[in-house]
Amino acid sequence: MALALVAGATAANALWSVRAPVAVSATSTGDITVAAVWRDGTPAWSPLFPGRSTAGHVLRITEGGEATTLRWTLRVSLTTASSFAPYVTMQAWVGPCGTGVPIPSAGYTTSSGLTPGQVLDVCVRLTMAANTPASLAGAAVAPVVTVAALQRGM
Fold it and tell me: In angstroms, what CA-CA distances link 72 with 60, 110, 124, 145?
């Protein structure tokens, strides 16, 4: 550190620099792509009734991008017809339904990020709110489940 004072000056300036070694590793650029398939075939979603949930259905998700050092976060979301949107929610877990690791709306990752080529089984379950209007009870929901891989820092 260096401190410079000039005669007659009313202020002082401090100049300093720090050097530290930084570990260098190979990095690459590329795309993150995700393949998601229903493990047991496309589900036949059972009709939903107020206060009830569907059986769990498992998505097998595989990252297949070309990048070798990018880490990613998994996000799973639900779209339904607008009449169902206020009443039908989705719960998703990495692993078994109800006992696996819950996937929050911000997405699922590990402390170091999900790695390229990683495969995850995600269980998805739909629930209809108890206060759903009777006119929607037992109607076909026809959900669309969307899976996204979001790049995250190293």
Answer: 16, 9, 20, 19
Which residues contact residue 136 at a Cβ distance below 8 angstroms, ignoring those fewer than 6 apart?
Answer: 83, 84, 87, 128
Rounded Cα–Cα distance for residues 90 and 79 (Å) = 9
**N-terminal to C-terminal alpha carbon distance within the chain:** 32
Q: Exposed (0-12), middle (13-18) or buried (19+): which is 99, by Cβ within 10 Å?
A: exposed
Among 14-18, 46-50, 113-117, name the one with the lowest average pLDDT: 14-18
Asked if 121 contacts 154 with a C-beta cutoff of 8 angstroms, the reply is no
The pLDDT-based confidence of 67 (bands split at 50, 70, 90) is low
Angstrom CA distances, 61 to 26, 36, 75, stand at 26, 4, 11
- Percent pLDDT > 70 in the chain is 75
CB burial string 124-141: b at 16+ within 10 A, e below: bbbbbeeebeeebeeeeb
